[in-house]
Amino acid sequence: MTVQLELRGITKRFPGVLANDHIDLTVEKGEIHALMGENGAGKSTLMSILFGLYQPDEGEIRLAGVERHFASPRDAIAAGLGMVFQSFKLFPSLTVAENVVFGRETTRRGRFDRKGAEREVAAIAERYGLALDPAARVDDLPVGVLQRVEIIKALYRDASVLILDEPTAVLTPQEAERLFEILRALAADGRTIIFITHKLKEVMALSDRVTVLRDGRVADRMVTAQTDARAITRAMTGRDVVLQATAAAGEPGKTVLALHDVTVHAEDGRTAVGGGGVGGSGSGVSLEVRAGEIVGIAGVAGNGQTELVEAIAGLRPIESGTVRIGGRDVTRASVAERRRAGMAYIPEDRHAVGTAGTADTTDNLSLGHHRQPPLLRRGLLQRSAMTRRARELIERFQIKVPGPATRVGTLSGGNLQKVVVAREMSHDTPLLIAEQPTRGVDIGAIEFLHGEITAFRDWGGAVLLVSAELSEIMSLAGRILVMFEGAVVAEVPAAQANESTLGMLMAGASPDQARAAQPGELV
Amino acid sequence: MNWSNLIDGELFASVVRALIPVLLAALGGLICERAGVFNIALEGLMLIGCFAAVAGSYATGSGYLGVLIAVAATVAVSAVLAYGSVTRRADPIVLGVALNIFGVGVTGFLLVAFFHVRGVFQNPKIIGLDTVRIPLLADIPWVGPVLFNLTLIGYLALILVIVTQLVMFRYPLGLRLRGVGERPTAASTLGVNPNRYRYGAVLLSGVLCGLAGAQLALGNVVQFSENMSAGRGWIAVVAVMLGRAHPIGTFGACVLFGFAEAFGFRLQGNGLPAQITDAAPYVVTLIALIIARKYFKRGIVSAVIE
C-alpha cells in the first residue's frame, strides 16, 4: 500500500489553547481511517487545517508524497480533498445538481448548463449506487439524501481523499449501514476515507485503522482488527468508561406525566403530532410517564418528536387532547405554570433555547431559580447567593469552566450541556423532559450525564427522554416508544428491544413487519 | 373631475419617467439582497448621485460627464458600505442608516459650499440628458412615445431588467451570487469566496444608484434640490421586498410605484393639494406591504439545513 496522506508535526495554537500539538497522521491509499477523540481533543481543528480553513503554526501536509500548502478550501479541493461536514453545507433553495456543481459549473457558451449538471450528477450517483434525483430541490430532501449530495459534491471534484465529520449523527441505523456500503465501495475504488466519529461500534465495523487524539496530541494509533472498543475508549479518555446504565430497581410509582389524545400542529399548519402514521388510529398521541421510570421516544428527526416535546413544555399550542403533570391539567398553562406543576426541561438546542450565550455561567445557572429565595429577596437578586449556588453546581456537575463569570457562549458542547442539565436537575422536580441530552457530547460527558439521569430516576423522578441515539435510549429507558409521522407506532420494553427492529419501526415499518423480521422481539 | 384628463398617453410617459430612477436603485438593491447584504443605503446613494451629476455637468458642461462623475461618487460611497459590512462585518442596516443621513448632510453642505445657494440649484450651465428618440418605433401609437423616447439611462434601465434576470438564473455568476447570499459558509467550502461577490454586488449597487441619481437630476429635471431623492431609494428597498428579489417581480413593483407617482402629479393638476398627492407612492407602498405581508412570513430559505 502507498501512503496517500501524511500530516507531520501539525501544531495549532489558539489564544490560551494548544489545539493541535505536533500531530502526525498517516493514511494509506484506499484505506478507511477513523479519527477519534473527545470533544476538544483537536479532531475538528486538525481536519480544518487539512481542508485549508485554518493555517497550521507548524508542521506540513504531504499528499501522495508532495508537500502542500492550502491557503483556502479552494486549494484543498484542487489538490483532491473533499470534506463532508457534520452540519451540511448545502443551499436549500437550489437543486441537487446546482449544489453539486456550484463553483465549478458546467457551461454551454458561457451559460450555466443545468441539464449537463444533472447528467453528470446522475452518472456519479449511478456509479456508486447513491440513489437520488438531481433535479430535486435540496430543502425537499431528507437528511440521509442530503448526505449523499455532500458525498457527490466531493466526487464531482474528483476527491481522492474524502473526510467525513460525524457522518452518522443524523442517520437511522439502516441509513448508516447504507452509508458504510457506499464508503466501502469508494475505498475499493482506490479513494481514501477519513472518518471522524464518537461511535465505537462504527469504528469497529468500518475502519481499517484508528488514530485517537487526546488533548491535542495523538494518544494512540491502532489497527482496528487488532484492538477493541475498550482499548479505544481508554485511549480517548485515559480511563475505563462504562456506558451500560443500570436498570431501574423497583416498579414505577404513580403517574407524573399523562398525555391523552394530543395533537399538535407544525409552523405551516399541518399536523405534526397525531392524526395517523402507519400504526396510528388517526387520533392523537397518548402516553404516560410514571415516577421512577425513564420512557424513551425513538424516531428519525422530523417525525413529530420535537413538536410533541415543545407542546408538553408549553412552547407550542396543543390543538386537541390533554396534558397532565402531577395530576394537574396543564394543557393550556404557561411554561411557568407547568414548571410550578413539576416540570424541568432540557431542550434539544442548548445554544438557542437552553442557554443565553452572552450571559455568564452564574446567570445561566440561576435562570428559573431567580423567583424564589435565596436568589431573590425583597424583589432584588442576590448576586452573592447566585454565585455561591453557581459554584456548587459547577462543582457537583463537574462543569469545566474557568469560573462563574465566564460567558457560556465560549464553552464546549459538553460543558454547555452540563450547565443546562445542572440548572434543570437542580429544580428537583418530579418530571424531567430530556431532549437529545447527549447530542454532540463526548463519551466522558455522556457517561456523567447518563449517571445523573439514572440517579434522578432512582430517586423517584419521571423522565421523558427523546433521543436520536438508539443506544442511548436502549441503555437508559425502561420503555421505548417509536414515533413515525407524528404517531406513536410501537411501544417496546427495553429488555426486548434491539437496534434493527427499532430502526425498521423508525423507518415506518409496521410492528408486524418488524416482528416478522425479528421474531419474538416485540410485544 | 374629468377622468379623460387623468389617463392619456402622457400619463404613461410620466409613469416611465418616474419609474426609471426607482428601478435602477431597486436593481442595485436586488443584487445586494441576493448576495446577502441588505442594502438600505439606496436613498443616500441616489441623493449623492443627484448632486454629483449636477455638479459634474455644471463643471464640465457635459451631461454624460456628469453621469460619470455621479457614478464615481456613488461607487466611492458604496465602497464604504462594502468595506464596513463585508470586511468589517458591521450591520449593513446601521451603516445604511448612517449613509442615508450622510447623503442628506453632505449634499446640503456642498450645495452651500460650491454653489452658495440653499434649497434649489438651477443654472443654465447644468446640461441635462436629452431623450433619444428611436425612429419608427417611437411612432407606434401609445407605446412608441412612452418606451422609445427615453434618455440613454432610461433604455439601459429597462434592458438591465432582462440582463439581471438572465444572469441571475442562467449564468454561473448568478448561481454563485444566489448561493453566496443563501449560505455563505457552503459557498466558501466550495472555494467560492463570498466576500468577493458581496463587494461586487455592493459596488454595482453604487453604479446603479449613481445612474438613478443622474437620471433624476439631469433627466427628469435639470436641477438639484435638497433631499430631491425624496424617499425613492426607500421605495426601491420596498420594491425589492415586494418583488421577492426577482428582477421581473421587482420591475412590476417599480411600475406600480411609478404609476402612483405619475397619477399623483396628475391629480395635483386637477386641484388636489400637493401634500396629499405627493403621498400617493408611499400610500401605495404601505398598502402593498400589508397585502404582501403573508408572503414575507414564508422566507425564501428553509431552516432545515444549517
Description:
The complex is a heterodimer of chains A (523) and B (306). Helix content of chain A is 33%, strand content 26%. A six-stranded mixed sheet of chain A has the order 6-9-10-3-11-12, with helices on both faces. In chain A, strands 19-22-23-16-24-25 form a six-stranded mixed sheet, with helices on both faces. Chain B has helices at 3-6, 9-35, 42-60, 63-87, 92-115, 143-147, 152-170, 172-182, 184-189, 194-220, 232-242, 247-269, 274-278, 280-297; strands at 120-121, 132-133, 149-150, 224-225. Chain B is globular, with a radius of gyration of 19 Å. Chain B has a domain at 20-124 and 133-229. Chain B starts with a helix and ends in a 9-residue tail after the last helix. Chain B is built from 14 helices and four strands. The interface between A and B is medium-sized, with 30 and 25 residues.
Mean pLDDT of chain B: 89
CATH class division of the largest domain in chain A: Alpha Beta
Q: Count of helices of chain B?
A: 14
Which sheet architecture does the biggest sheet of chain A show? Answer: 6 strands, mixed
CATH topology of the largest domain in chain A: Rossmann fold
Helix percent of chain B reads over 70%
Distance between the termini of chain B: 58 Å
Which series of helices and strands of chain B comes N to C?
A: HHHHHEEHEHHHHEHHHH
The CATH fourth-level homologous superfamily of the largest domain in chain A: P-loop containing nucleotide triphosphate hydrolases
